[in-house]
Amino acid sequence: MTDKAPWLVMIYLAGDNNLSEESVYALTEMSKAEVNPNNVKIIAQLDSGIHDSTSVTIKKGMRPGELVEDLIRKQKLRKQLRLARGKVKTAEEPTYSEVIFSFIEKCITAYPNHRYALILSGHGSGIGDFLSKVDADRIDSLSVPLLAELMKKVSAVIKKATPTSDKLDILGMDSCLMSMSEVAFAVSPYAKIMIGAEGFEPLAGWPYKPVLEEFNLTSISLNGAGEQDLQQLARNIVSRYIGYYTDYQAAGTSVDQAACDLSESLGLSRAVQTLTKALLLHLPSGNPANAAEPRQVTQSKVRNAVVLSHWEAQPYKNEQYTDLYDFCSLLKRHCKELIPENTETIRACQNVMNAIRGSASEGSAALDADSGYQVMKGYVLKSCYSGLSVQYSHGASIYFPWAEEPSELAKYDELDFAKQSQWIKFIRRYLSVTKRDPRPGTGDLRTFEQESRKHSSAAWSVALLSVAHRNGAENKNGAENKNGAENKNGAENKNIGRMLGSMRNPPTGFYVCECTVETPVGAKGERIATATEKTIAKLSSKTAGARGIGEASQKTKAKR
Which residues pair with 260 in a beta bridge? Predict the structure, then answer.
């Protein structure tokens, strides 16, 4: 038997924006979780309009008011330490990333030889700004490269505290739009499993009570044994999230959630690279000299198949991101129907599908892939949805815009995934061959290109391509959810991010997604009790035994 290691769950709440109340609500839900403190330690850090990165240890059954008392006590202590340090010349104020790292470092150092989970809660926008917060007259946030840098430092701290590992067991993204292939690839060297949503999250975020109780049910040794239990825990967290929000279908709320095995992230990027190469081979690099030539006809068909698949596929964030599996599934089908001779693209699509879901889930279709991709474990451990607008979510989205924004493409080109998979090359070619020619007119062709070079900010590029509306909503993702406005004024309304227009012509109904909580099963198929259930059973038997002795004693006395 190996010794089981307790869990340390660290939760950073970036609530210095319109999520302040929801962050406090999350803390109160954490305190309701039925967890054994010997099995699970829960430490949260709150950043809000009142508290500037104040940490608190969550205790089971905290009475009303106890939480704020703890926060105030910690806040006063931090002020005293600051005053004491004020007598000595200190270094510059820490960066936002350094503040988050300091919290994580203190937690791990205080609790060595644990299994570690980190949940980052706040606003998210995929490959854009992450955990945005208001700080005086500016907005602080993390980029994907900064997030990767932060996780690298965390990995080094884990290595010191727990010599048998240098990775987070679970990285939870309690934020919108973070289950992206690009994000996962960036953090994959430093965490085992990532859990997050491809689409929007409601303001309330994760249901912390049932989620933390799942940690309490899962005991895993430090020596690497029990990794299957870790994956089951991740799948059950997804199920708890979806189960919690199922009742919110009554309010028209749609959610998705996925757990991803980051050890398979590199395999996914390589599969995407095969897709990139196949598409570049068959997409024209410019206007064909003779559109009637067989090669040009094939190129035109491939272009149309890609556009149609992009049109139909599950989109996110104002149609800038697309579910990767859904896109490949559609493209494979359209290529088989329209250009069956294009076997390279068909095989490449199946490469990606195998890499995402695993060959076993693809059945006989897995053999449509290239030989090196016919046997794949699968990057997505579990992906579920509830509601209408995100029902074609499969766990991994990818950057796939409809129009060129030079500043955004330049930033995307800096991401490791974009380089490894060469997806940026496909994006540039795709945007070139699908861009409409200018309407004929008089004089020289005019562009905004020179002006946009003067204004290198992303805001200028967006301004050129966006449309202002008199109803005040500038975009589709300005809803009161975790990708909403970064300031305390919030957004204009509560439901625009979950409108039917999630696709160009979306389905108007949906079937229930089977997303059940798993229980351990033995070799013969019998159900195995969890560690907590065994403990409860032991306690119950002891109590019953004590009660039996007492009852026997009473009967003996009565007889005497």
Answer: 194, 380
Q: Are 192 and 262 in contact, with CB atoms under 8 Å apart?
A: yes
The Cα–Cα gap between 248 and 386 comes to 9
**Which residue stretches of 171-293 are H helix?**
181-187, 208-216, 227-246, 265-282
DSSP, residue by residue, 352-388: HHHHHH-HHHHGGGGGGS-GGGSS---SEEEEEEESS
Kindly report the pTM of this predicted structure: 0.85
Amino acid at 180: M
Taking only the tens place, the pLDDT of each residue in 225-281 is 678 999 999 999 999 999 999 999 999 999 999 999 999 999 999 999 999 999 999
d(CA 368, CA 360): 13
Q: What does the pLDDT look like over 121-161, one tens digit per residue?
A: 999 999 999 998 877 566 789 999 999 999 999 999 999 99
Please name the residue that has the structure tokens 């046997």. 375
| pLDDT tens for each residue of 504-520 | 788 888 899 989 998 86
Could you tell me the sign of the dihedral formed by the alpha carbons of 365, 370, 374, 377, in that order? negative
pLDDT value at 200 more than 90: yes
The secondary element (H helix, E strand) that includes residue 12 is strand 7-14
Summarize the confidence of residues 102-106 as an average pLDDT.
97
Decide: residue 247, CB within 10 A, 0-12 exposed, 13-18 middle, 19+ buried: exposed
70 and 98 in contact (C-beta within 8 Å)? no
Q: Which of 199, 12, 183 is nearest to 97 (CA)?
A: 12
Phi/psi region, residue 387 (left: phi>0; alpha: psi -120 to 50; beta: rest), is left
Integer Cα distance of 170 and 119 in angstroms: 8
